[in-house]
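Quick one:
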Amino acid sequence: MKTLQFSRDEKKSRVTVMCADGEKSVYSYCAYCSHCKGVWVNGRLTPSPQSRALGDLRKGSAVDENLMNAALLFNSLVRDGTAIECTAGESEGFARLY
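Output:
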């Protein structure tokens, strides 16, 4: 696994990381990437809420709105965090979560 540090642009309210595909938005890409394992917040790795919500949805124990709540939680984690934990190799880039 590798840790991808955030690059913040306060003027545009944008947070990006350097991915194998180039610079990607954390909110638009990492949130929905199967390689994203979590967000580093205050020195702790917080697991990706979308992965957990998707697993619950596949088991049939969750509703669609749980995915929306997971996305909102992910955005909050990114706002407070410093980096993304990524399992992609050097030549791998974005891979759809769902």
